[in-house]
Design goal:
about 25% strand, alpha+beta, globular, FAD/NAD(P)-binding domain, 6-stranded mixed β-sheet
Length: about 450
């Protein structure tokens, strides 16, 4: 029975280790950071997570959903904040199960590591950085982050879950085994904490409605906020790196407060130490990693962001990484030789990860701008009517991505494009009013047959 070495004990690496150990595989998890269970939670650079159906299914597959569920906060829709302080709630879907869940990245990671530490088949190693590898020889170069001591160790199967800046990917690229390109986004992000508010006689409460993903869409930029279990929100400002408005215009003292007071006044009023946080919290970069050649020598495989990092605007980065774990675990279980499973993994997954990368970039424009238009609302309403009238044949693309893990990302992209063409045709012929019988018949002729036909 081979031993699996996993580089990176973040959520994806930890979940992959749990899935393997559940099938009695031996696992060694190596993480460059200190043990997060023994250190304060990191603030200011996490981008809170939105768990959707693909991530939930993977947690269930690993047998840890019950551990995570108490920390999940249901968000059945978006709460839009307009420039005048008005609110509009937009449900994500039409059914009770069409809900996404907010959860702290740090909390999720701790839960998964606690489960891993309790499993006898998993060995954990922290403060250990991978500095290089030789896939053909099956050797790793490591460095103890506390002492600086370098060492080497052998591996049988190496899974790299070491994130968008993957050392393992860089080593494969340097050896000619992989090709990778990072396309940086011209927009950066900065996190801000919206604290709980004190309610006389009732204890701390949320500053805003907790069961919603809050969005301040402002065309060229946006602020979002996700609820935390301690009654706070983690807000994230996505803004151009340069220009006006842009982060480079917010460097003088007081500029950040003036900017947010002008554009997101209710959020600014809810952050008493806004200027201090803005100065203290780092400005994060965003980008998409496109990689070809996820595996090498039949014993090394890139996983999650190491293989296909995406920007966070569809809430699918972690969900996609968790789906990677579930797909790979099923492939390993169904192949006698792990090398065959590793080779098939990229063939199965890459069309889907390319699709979600494209859809995520499109969703940024929708979140910061599209949701503000009356045309967007009309098309959403018409799409909802078609979904009710043609269940299974018309499912809005957002719903396919977020709530239908049985539909691969690439299929959601294809069907979504077809459905946009249907909405265009209906608008041109019948307008965007209530769905009439003739319009429904026309739409039926344009859509794919029912999946079971």
């Amino acid at each position: 029975m081979p031993r699996y070495t996993i580089i990176g004990a973040g959520p994806v690496g930890a979940l992959m280790g749990l899935m393997l150990a559940r099938r009695a595989q031996r696992v060694r998890l190596i993480e460059r950071r200190p043990d997060p269970r023994a250190t304060p939670e990191e603030r200011g650079r996490s981008i809170n997570l939105a768990l959707a159906a693909r991530g939930v299914l993977a947690l269930e597959h690993a047998g840890v959903l019950d551990r995570v569920a108490p920390d999940m906060i249901a968000m059945p829709g978006r709460m839009l904040h307009d420039e005048d302080g008005g609110l509009q709630f937009l449900p994500y879907g039409q059914n009770r199960h069409e809900v996404i869940h907010a959860i702290s990245r740090e909390r999720l990671n701790r839960i998964l590591l606690e489960a891993a530490a309790a499993h006898p088949g998993i060995e954990l190693g922290f403060d250990t950085r991978c500095t290089g590898l030789n896939p053909d020889a099956g050797t790793l170069q490591l460095r103890d982050e506390r002492s600086g001591e370098a060492s080497s160790e052998s591996f049988e199967i190496l899974l790299a879950a070491d994130g968008a800046g993957s050392t393992v990917r860089a080593a494969l690229v340097a050896r000619g085994a992989s090709r990778a390109e990072e396309q940086a986004l011209a927009h950066d992000y900065k996190e801000l904490q919206i604290p709980a508010i004190e309610r006389p006689g009732a204890g701390p409460g949320y500053a805003f409605e907790p069961h919603a993903l809050h969005i301040w869409p402002r065309g060229g930029f946006m602020l979002i906020a996700l609820p935390n279990a301690d009654r706070s929100f983690t807000a994230t400002l996505f803004l151009a790196r340069h220009g006006d408005p842009g982060f480079d215009h917010l460097q003088r003292p007081g500029a950040a407060g003036e900017f947010l007071q002008r554009w997101c006044a209710d959020a600014a009023a809810a952050i008493p130490d806004l200027e201090s946080q803005f100065a203290r919290h780092p400005q994060g970069r965003l980008g998409t990693v496109y990689c070809e050649g996820w595996q090498a020598a039949g014993c090394v495989l890139l996983l999650g962001d190491a293989a296909h990092a995406i920007v966070p605007f569809h809430g699918q980065g972690l969900n996609c990484g968790f789906e990677d774990c579930r797909v790979l675990d099923q492939l390993l279980a169904s192949h006698a030789a792990p090398a065959a499973a590793l080779a098939e993994f990229e063939r199965v997954r890459r069309p889907n990860t390319d699709a979600i990368a494209a859809m995520t970039l499109e969703n940024y424009v929708e979140m910061r701008d599209g949701v503000r238009s009356a045309l967007f609302a009309q098309r959403q309403r018409l799409g909802a009517e078609l979904e009710r009238a043609l269940p299974g044949r018309f499912i809005p693309r957002y719903s396919m991505v977020m709530f239908h893990p049985e539909i691969p990302y690439a299929e959601a992209q294809r069907r979504g494009a077809q459905q946009e063409r249907v909405l265009d045709a209906l608008a041109a012929r019948y307008g965007l009013g209530p769905l009439q019988p003739a319009a429904l018949t026309y739409a039926q002729g344009l859509l794919d047959p029912a999946p079971d036909a």
